[in-house]
Amino acid sequence: MAEALASKTCTPCRGGIPSLTREQAELFHGQVPDWQLLEDTRRIERSFRFRNFRQALTFVEAEGHHPTISFGWGNATVSLQTKKIKRLHENDFIMATKIDRIFTRLATG
Questions:
Q1: Which pTM value belongs to this model?
Q2: What beta strand segments (E) does the chain contain?
Q3: Residue 56's domain is classified under what CATH number?
């Protein structure tokens, strides 16, 4: 199922659209189990470990979405939430699968 999310493209969010219900967020979460559902299903977050600062920086720069990212020597934490609705949207889970793939490429490359 994560494959299905990864093949999707994020749709522009203009605000005023409904956020995911708890049940919908939990279903999508099943497709990105390495991510944590936080703040009463308002955002998702995952921490990544790298061999060094350069790898962490490359990972952060490879990301084209607008997540909240903190990083340092050998680590990066990505937090996703659709800013316009201040909650989760399917786009956030699509990005989570894409971020996981970027990490896998960097970690194994």
A1: 0.83
A2: 36-38, 43-49, 68-72, 75-80
A3: 3.30.1360.20
